[in-house]
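3-phosphoshikimate 1-carboxyvinyltransferase
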Amino acid sequence: MAPNNAHTALWPAPHASGAVDATVHVPGSKSVTNRALVLAALASEPGWLRRPLRSRDTLLMAAALRAMGVGIEETVSSSSSVAGGPDGTGEAWRVLPAGLLGPATVDVGNAGTVMRFLPPVAALADGPVRFDGDPRSYERPLHGVIDALRALGARIDDDGRGALPLTVHGSGALDGGPVEVDASSSSQFVSALLLSGPRFNQGVEVRHIGSTLPSMPHIRMTVDMLRSVGAQVDTPESGGEPNVWRVTPGALLGRDLTVEPDLSNAQPFLAAALVTGGKVLIPDWPARTTQPGDQLREIFTEMGGSCELTEYGLEFTGSGAIHGIDVDLSEVGELTPGIAAVAALADSPSTLRGVAHLRLHETDRLAALTKEINELGGDVTETADGLHIRPRPLHGGVFHTYDDHRMATAGAVIGLAVKDVRIENVATTAKTLPDFPDLWTGMLGN
Ligand SMILES: O=C(O)C1=C[C@@H](OP(=O)(O)O)[C@@H](O)[C@H](O)C1
Ligand SMILES: C=C(OP(=O)(O)O)C(=O)O
């Protein structure tokens, strides 16, 4: 077998010779695709996903559901009525729910959505489902899901660390009911329990008991998507108790859903407009969305750009100036690497707050950003819950990515402004955006 050099390969990040002026079609949202797959698999009738994201995280989700007996048929069409996009073209997946079955094996890779959303699904399967993944997946927090499922009646074998690997011994049904969870390390604990909640005998009432709760837009996304397939969900925002979400038991509808572009994956392209004083159009930017990436309109405007949302999409324009920012990113933690990259190129310091939980993401993102930006000559320090970034002239060098897709795209943003930045393992962007290198060079007109 040929040696796999992907991890050590260095990708010369293209340097921008002038202002970018491009239209970038960003593939579908990871978070929407993986929620839609789970909900479609739990439905009582077939459903469609149009323009799903095809990336490592979503293919792992599809493979896992297939391993438990769900049918997922992939179609690509240029003209027929089963096509993906509203214009009648693209990719569409037909999901055919079936009785969930073990024995099955699930590879979660390093996908938070797969490792957290699927153990509750496995508790509904008839038979054992074994979960395993990348070495990093063993370190990412899962205790909230494991402890809650046990409290709700599931049998789970793990090694006592509250983490992967583990086996869920599904018995075909789960009692459900009220449960307390400390989701301060990941909002995905709450989303995971809510997504399968309609299929638990008594539904589920999740009470978050931790001091902080990150990524609230992602919990809203879960609630919105549950409601759109017919689930009844009571939330703090709909007049319920603070920190309590209640899902009523009931059948889920099969839907026909077109997946929005991934706005967090739009981030490096918007950043390119900001950093080069150029212009980028992202077609199909939704007018209304629960995706956290929508907050980039405000954040990157404060950092020096301006934007307009039209019928064609989001047009983002850089002014040539990049300003530092003092911002709480707890709601939008996954945007931190890209914001840090822009902040390192700004005309004033930045403080990024509220993201201590990023230490347990794909890698320890606070440590990785600090080390890699500083090795290019930057001046970044970690705080208890974020980063201080004092811009300094940067120089070229190797930008290590630690198997983290968002480290790779952050390095590419810096490379636009700094010559001779080489990104280690740019292929790690395949987690959520396999087309990244081509989209990036395409944007630059190469
Ligand atoms: O539910 C989701 O789709 C996600 C929730 C967030 O996780 P955390 O709350 O663990 O940060 C986010 O960072 C992740 O990229 C996707
Ligand atoms: C934190 C992220 O992913 P995951 O879904 O694996 O948690 C991310 O995409 O930034």
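thats it. The mean pLDDT is 95. The chain has two domains: 10-27+261-443, 30-258. bye
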